[in-house]
């Protein structure tokens, strides 16, 4: 049967996160900065201490996700796998714009859906994220390192929350290296913890971007 427990992690901090600009596919090769590297090590130590049953570590193809997932895989003694479908949302024509525009400007595609002109909608991202998770092998505990926008859209799909609600509610926003744990009950997923940053207490205050 599909996984009954899953961990979702946002990648560690990058220079673009600090400068608060949208990067999209142009930032696929962006590395973690020194704070992000520390965050990755703290996530790894926390997950290793849980002694998970049959853990399997996945990351998006973006460098910052892989660099966050690598210490986790090493700490658990398992390989790192690239998972298609959990990469960051493509902001299209909004590449290079500040994060603040996400809250102060209308975010609509040409067809009126919630998303980026010339890029992806939140629903499209949620659907690909959901497909990626449902396509994983049975009998494992997946740990998936993804991205802020992708996690919000993916959680909306997994928890059957309207994507516009998830986008506007701050509880779905993941700071760098935040951790969400879900459990499957029947056909649905339920939150055990959402965007948790307690494992990063050594680095407080946490950059929320």
TrEMBL record:
Organism in which the protein naturally occurs: Deinococcus aetherius
Keyword Zinc-finger: no
Keyword Isomerase: yes
Stored InterPro entries: His_Pase_superF_clade-1 (IPR013078), His_PPase_superfam (IPR029033), PG/BPGM_mutase_AS (IPR001345), PGM_Phosphatase (IPR050275)
Name of the protein in its database record: Phosphoglycerate mutase
Alphabetical UniProt keywords: Glycolysis, Isomerase
Residue ranges of the TM segments: none
PROSITE patterns the record matches: PG_MUTASE
Matching CDD domains: HP_PGM_like
């Amino acid at each position: 049967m599909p996984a009954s427990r899953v961990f979702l992690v946002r990648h560690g901090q990058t220079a673009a996160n600090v400068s608060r600009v949208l990067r999209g596919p142009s930032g696929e090769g962006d590395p973690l900065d020194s704070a992000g590297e520390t965050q990755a090590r703290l996530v790894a130590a926390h997950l290793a201490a849980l002694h998970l049953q049959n853990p399997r570590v996945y990351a998006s193809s973006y460098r910052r996700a892989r660099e966050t997932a690598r210490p986790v895989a090493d700490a658990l003694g398992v390989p790192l796998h690239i998972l298609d479908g959990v990469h960051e949302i493509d902001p299209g024509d909004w590449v290079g714009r500040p994060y603040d525009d996400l809250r102060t400007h209308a975010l609509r595609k040409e067809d009126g859906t919630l998303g980026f002109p010339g890029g992806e909608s939140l629903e499209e991202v949620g659907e690909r994220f959901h497909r990626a998770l449902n396509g994983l092998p049975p009998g494992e505990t997946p740990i998936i390192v993804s991205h802020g926008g992708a996690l919000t859209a993916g959680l909306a799909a997994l928890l059957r929350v309207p994507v516009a609600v998830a986008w506007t509610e701050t509880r779905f926003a993941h700071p760098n290296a935040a951790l969400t744990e879900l459990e499957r009950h029947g056909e649905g997923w339920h939150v055990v913890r959402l965007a948790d940053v307690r494992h990063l207490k050594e680095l407080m205050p946490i950059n929320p971007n």
